[in-house]
Amino acid sequence: MVKVFLRKGRERSIERRHPWVFSGAVERVDGTPDIGSTVAVCACGGAVLGYGSWSPQSQIRVRMLSFSKNAVPDDAYIRGLVQAATGRRSGMEGPSVFARPHLGVRVVHGESDGLPGLVVDSYDGWCVVQCASAGAERFRDEVVRALMDAGAKGVYNRSDVDSRKREGLPEEGTVGVLAGGEPPETIEIHEGSIRYLVDVRNGHKTGFYLDQREARAQVGAHAAGREVLNCFSYTGGFGLACAAGGAKSVVNLDLSKTALQLAERNFELLFDGGVPRCPVDFRCADVFKQLRLYRDQGRQFDLIVLDPPKFADTKAQLIRAARGYKDINLLAMKLLRSGGILATFSCSGAMTADFFDTICREAACDARRDMQIIARTRQASDHPTALSFPEGEYLNGLILKA
């Protein structure tokens, strides 16, 4: 096995079980490892610290799979990690996550489950896989076998992610069936009394934003009697939670006509299920432009949700992204009635909670609004963060009251 030797002092992060080895920490490589292959990570003196996946074109040169010289990550080791992750979501005595009707759940959450670069979401037993690193691509087939052995109905590949370019991975062959049959056109999942139709083949990410499950419930609890503006609505998530919570009306705003069409179907499911109907609008428009239009028209709302896509992938992009976050929050604050609620989120991994607070504070100052923080949100509990990997805490949310 090829050995990667670290510079003196750089072994400390591995000893603290941080899963990333950056290119600047590498002193030398004894051998020529293939992309995604397993390498032994060694201290400068030669002691083996653990094993990881080699990514020669990435700034993250090695992603750790084990932190022991005795735990060599072979196929059985990878299967064990998948089984452990699935078991954590299933609970001690509960049925498998794949056996629970209409459950939407993250089964594997990358580094925090010991499988760097790998995401697996399950929708009513149909698994959707994203391989965002060279190592994840390398051990993908073993992951698929482990998922099928655990009872998955099928496994679908949605590895069409930008990070593959930085890893030097091919862009072709990233979407399609990996095991089992073709998944349905839409898959129904439930969150409490709310039913969602998920398009795993063409939707964003793996099809749905499971990480906002708990935030949707929190926001919906504030919706009774309020006029709601749901920005970046996608297929309706927060708007549906607000309607179920007794909203007076809901406007869903998104740039994707296809997403809004599925949102309409989701609202029909909601109302057909017994939730009292309220006026619902679906507006296909650029959110920034539409908020300015509402401002110029003097339009106001009682509850506004801002759940934008990622504005920054890296710290270098964060300052420019901060302008966008501030602008959109400032506009939303100007549209809020007194006593109104703003639920605002950032899914940019480079964004810290403190910096997000600062952006919202400056937006409130410029909007001349007094805002109170009444709740903070993070990603849902099936998206855990390893204590040794703070970078895994990527979703920041504030629920503010004017």
Descriptive labels:
Rossmann fold; Transcription Regulator spoIIAA; 28% strand; 20 strands; 3 domains; globular; six-stranded mixed sheet; alpha/beta; 402 residues; Archaeosine Trna-guanine Transglycosylase, Chain: A, domain 4
How would you portray this structure in words?
- This protein has eleven helices and 20 strands.
- It is an alpha/beta fold.
- The chain folds into three domains: 64 residues, PUA domain (Archaeosine Trna-guanine Transglycosylase, Chain: A, domain 4, Roll); 105 residues, RNA methyltransferase domain (HRMD) like (Transcription Regulator spoIIAA, 2-Layer Sandwich); 193 residues, Rossmann fold.
- The termini are far apart.
Question: How are the SSEs ordered, and which strands pair?
Answer:
Layout: E1 3-6, H1 11-15, E2 20-22, E3 26-30, E4 38-42, E5 48-54, E6 60-66, H2 75-90, E7 104-109, E8 118-123, E9 126-131, H3 134-138, H4 140-149, E10 154-158, H5 163-167, E11 175-179, E12 187-191, E13 194-198, H6 213-220, E14 227-231, H7 237-244, E15 249-254, H8 257-272, E16 280-284, H9 287-297, E17 301-306, H10 318-335, E18 336-346, H11 353-367, E19 372-377, E20 396-401
Parallel strand pairs: 1-4, 9-10, 14-15, 14-17, 15-16, 17-18
Antiparallel strand pairs: 1-3, 2-6, 4-5, 5-6, 7-8, 8-9, 10-11, 12-13, 18-20, 19-20
Helix pairs in contact: 2-4, 6-7, 7-8, 9-10, 10-11
Q: Helices and strands: which structural class?
A: alpha/beta
Terminal CA distance reads 60 Å
Shape assignment? globular
Approximate helicity band: 25-40%
CATH fold-level assignment of the largest domain:
Rossmann fold
Radius of gyration: 22 Å
How many domains, in number, for the residues?
A: 3
Question: Which sequence of strands runs across the widest sheet?
Answer: 16-15-14-17-18-20-19
Per CATH, which architecture of the largest domain? 3-Layer(aba) Sandwich
Low-confidence stretches: none
CATH superfamily of the largest domain: Vaccinia Virus protein VP39
The total count of strands amounts to: 20
What is the CATH class name of the largest domain? Answer: Alpha Beta
For the largest beta-sheet, the strand count, sense and barrel status come to: 7 strands, mixed
